């Protein structure tokens, strides 16, 4: 096993593999958006189902409330993510314009910033001066280096439209799963809820496993942790619905 892992690592770090990976763009940026949308979609929908079941609502009411929340909350979340990424990109563009202006007005000061940045990384002497000269000879490289090194900004993969659409699609796809049993005619209410519970638990677990691909966490632990968090949200919704039914006589 250790030998196979080493061989896989060596293959990933072959010069050609490294070149392909670095030039491959930011396709992986969509995965966090999908995970975010999927988790929130499943929590939102199953919370509605749990609350409806706890309050004694009929399957039809649970289905209507679930789909209404699925569409409304999914759209709201997609718009929120779109605006957040758009604001982030506008901030990066603003800082980029400032850096271009600084290079025009005080190029020696900006060159010294590059020198200080790479001095802190351990470069010195002739090598440091060669690095500074190489970077500052390319204006775009100069500015992008300042964005990353001085301001700590991400300059690639910021697509508001893609983030919004991926979030919305994941929200709908995963969030619809707990509603599937309520769309099946002839099932008893308890059976519908238990089936919905099972599907929601499976979604939480799978999403948690997917998170491990992004954040490099242990797969099983990540799945269980997300399952527990989703279960806690559903339990709170069920308790709220049950208390509402007991206190206010809300039922259908």
TrEMBL record:
GO biological process per UniProt: intracellular manganese ion homeostasis
Looking up Pfam families in the UniProt record yields: VIT1 (PF01988)
Q: Does the keyword Chloroplast apply?
A: no
Q: Which organism is this entry from?
A: Halomonas shengliensis
Q: Where is the composition biased (Basic and acidic residues)?
A: 7-19
- Places the protein is found: Endomembrane system
Q: Where are the annotated segments for Disordered?
A: 1-25
Keyword terms, alphabetized: Membrane, Transmembrane, Transmembrane helix
Q: Name one GO molecular function term.
A: manganese ion transmembrane transporter activity
Mainly localized where?
membrane
Q: Which GO terms describe its cellular component?
A: endomembrane system
Q: Indicate the transmembrane segments per the record.
A: 46-72, 165-187, 193-214, 226-248
The membrane-topology field of this record reads:
Multi-pass membrane protein
Full protein name: Predicted Fe2+/Mn2+ transporter, VIT1/CCC1 family
């Amino acid at each position: 096993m250790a030998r196979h892992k080493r061989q896989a690592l060596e293959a990933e770090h072959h010069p050609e593999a490294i070149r392909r990976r670095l030039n491959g763009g930011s396709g992986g940026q969509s995965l966090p958006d999908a995970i975010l949308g999927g988790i929130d979609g499943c929590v939102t929908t199953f919370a509605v189902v749990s609350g409806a079941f706890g309050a004694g609502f009929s399957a039809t009411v649970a289905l209507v409330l679930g789909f209404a929340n699925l569409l409304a909350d999914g759209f709201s979340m997609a718009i929120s993510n779109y605006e957040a990424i758009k604001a982030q990109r506008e901030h990066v563009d603003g800082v980029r314009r400032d850096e271009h202006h600084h290079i025009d007005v005080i190029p020696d000061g900006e060159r010294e910033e590059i020198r200080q940045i790479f001095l802190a990384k351990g470069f010195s002497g002739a090598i440091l001066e060669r690095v500074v000269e190489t970077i500052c000879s390319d204006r775009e490289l100069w500015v992008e280096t300042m964005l990353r090194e001085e301001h700590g900004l991400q300059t690639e993969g910021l697509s508001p439209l893609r983030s919004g659409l991926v979030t919305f699609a994941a929200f709908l796809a995963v969030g619809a799963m707990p509603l599937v049993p309520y769309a099946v005619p002839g099932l008893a209410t308890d059976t519908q809820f238990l089936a919905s519970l099972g599907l929601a638990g499976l979604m939480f677990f799978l999403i948690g496993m997917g998170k491990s691909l992004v954040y490099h966490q242990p797969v099983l632990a990540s799945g269980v942790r997300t399952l527990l968090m989703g279960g806690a949200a559903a339990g709170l919704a069920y308790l709220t619905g049950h208390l509402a039914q007991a206190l206010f006589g809300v039922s259908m």
